[in-house]
Design goal:
Elements: E1 2-13, E2 16-27, E3 30-36, H1 42-50, E4 57-62, E5 65-69, E6 74-75, E7 83-86, H2 98-108, H3 113-126, H4 142-154, E8 160-164, H5 172-189, E9 192-197, H6 200-206, E10 209-214, E11 217-222, H7 224-229, H8 234-239, E12 243-254, E13 257-262, E14 265-271, E15 282-288, E16 293-295, E17 303-312, E18 317-323, E19 326-332, E20 339-344, E21 351-354
Parallel strand pairs: 3-9, 3-10, 7-8, 8-9, 14-21
Antiparallel strand pairs: 1-2, 1-4, 4-5, 5-6, 10-11, 12-13, 12-15, 13-14, 15-21, 16-20, 17-18, 17-20, 18-19
Helix pairs in contact: 2-3, 2-4
The structure holds adenosine-5'-triphosphate.
Residues 13-14, 16, 18, 36, 38-44, 198 line the site of adenosine-5'-triphosphate.
GO molecular function: ABC-type ferric iron transporter activity; ATP binding; ATP hydrolysis activity
InterPro entries: AAA+_ATPase (IPR003593), ABC_SmlMolc_Importer (IPR050093), ABC_transporter-like_ATP-bd (IPR003439), ABC_transporter-like_CS (IPR017871), ABC_transpr_FbpC (IPR015853), Mo/tungstate-bd_C_term_dom (IPR008995), P-loop_NTPase (IPR027417)
Pfam family, one: ABC_tran
């Protein structure tokens, strides 16, 4: 069931158009990640859904209720939108206990004290914080503070939970764990969540749907696997994954099959530019690091390269490869001696785009 409908939202700030017509929907029991470069408009879009910014154009419907209609000049305040908000900073009140922090909004809304007590205790218990109800924020770890902030947003029983970089203040290990329990929580509660993040691995692991923003526009949306393995532009391809990017010229082209080459190298690849590419055009190829297989014995379909170095990364080895002005990284399971190696790179993994920066 669709909980959130955002249609053609446009927002100007300081005389600049920051959002240029964002449209998407979010389903109950799912997580939508807003991903994109710094300044692409993720937080502004989240703030528009929250009611903290008023878009000049567009409409937003939450749980069947129109909360924004640019044409009718309707813009409901955040407290009438049935949303919960979690900020990067957690924004807990330092002089209030955990239970006061979580219950304060209900008190402001005139909920009776015994109901507040029950609702606060229930959500604290659910997130494993019941025993910390009387502590102050300074007496909690970062991870616990973050859970309190999530409890405070959930205690209203919102239909949509809005999370603005909620994990970025946690250390790497806690952050990884939080992806899983937050995801499970959203699915168990059958609400929907919108997660702003600049961390691609967080978006890939936590979200059902990823919206990739560029310069105030949603340039691609889809499931994590679709976005990762089927990028529709250089921006999308470059934004996700660990990539080798090499500049060259189109040598031959036949439909989507193309050969790109530079000084001392050429590679068979696949054109992914919607408008196609012609011979002799300047181009860029994107090759995910994991798509290059390196062998120390000649391989039929392999390109001969120089291995400059093998670097130990703990769980794998990283190889630094070179041929003319084509420089690449690849991974493998064993240390390899410097010198000649063969790199197998399937043509479908050499994504060729126009070189917009030529
Ligand atoms: N109040 C404002 N006045 C003018 N410009 C603003 C204002 N707030 C944000 N912007 C601009 O809007 C653009 C989008 O900002 P926004 O914070 O939404 O991006 P973001 O994708 O969330 O970035 P980040 O990942 O760095 O947080 C940026 O260029 C920013 O400078």
């Amino acid at each position: 069931m669709t909980e959130l409908v955002v249609n053609n939202v446009q927002k100007w700030l300081g005389g600049l158009q920051i959002l240029k017509g964002a449209s998407f929907t979010a389903e109950r029991g799912s997580i939508v990640a807003l991903l994109g470069a710094s300044g692409s408009g993720k937080t502004t879009l989240l703030r528009c859904v929250a009611g903290l910014e008023q878009p000049e154009v567009g409409s937003i419907v939450i749980g069947g209720k129109t909360v924004l209609d640019g044409e009718k000049k309707l813009a409901l305040p955040p407290e009438q939108r049935n949303i919960g908000l979690v900020f990067q900073s957690y924004a807990l009140w330092p002089h209030r206990t955990v239970k006061e922090n979580v219950g304060y909004g209900l008190k402001l809304r005139g909920v009776n004290p015994s109901d507040i007590g029950n609702r606060v205790q229930a959500i604290l218990d659910r997130l494993g914080l019941g025993h910390l109800a009387d502590r102050y924020p300074s007496q909690l770890s970062g991870g616990q503070q973050q859970r309190v902030a999530i409890c405070r947003a959930l205690v209203y029983e919102p239909r949509v939970l809005l999370l603005d970089e909620p994990l970025s203040n946690l250390d790497a290990k806690l952050r990884e764990e939080a992806r899983y329990w937050i995801r499970k929580l959203i699915l168990d509660l059958e609400i929907c969540a919108i997660l702003v993040t600049h961390d691609q691995s967080e978006a890939l692991a936590a979200a059902d749907n990823i919206l990739l923003l560029q310069d105030g526009r949603i340039v691609q949306q889809g499931g994590p696997q679709e976005i990762y393995s089927n990028p529709n532009s250089f921006y999308s391809a470059d934004f996700l994954g660990a990539n080798n990017i090499v500049k060259g010229k189109i040598q031959t082209v036949d439909g989507k099959a193309a050969t790109i080459g530079g000084k001392g190298w050429s590679l068979n690849g696949t054109v992914r530019e919607a408008s196609g590419l012609g011979p002799a055009e300047e181009a860029r190829a994107v090759i995910r690091v994991e798509q290059i297989k390196v062998t120390d014995a000649p391989a039929n379909d392999g390109i001969e390269m120089d291995l400059d170095d093998s670097i130990y990364l703990g769980d794998r080895w990283e190889y630094r490869l070179r041929r003319g002005d084509f420089v690449a990284k690849a991974h493998g399971t064993k240390q390899m001696a410097t010198g000649k190696v063969w790199a197998q790179i399937p043509p479908e993994s050499v994504w060729v785009f126009a070189d917009a920066q030529k």
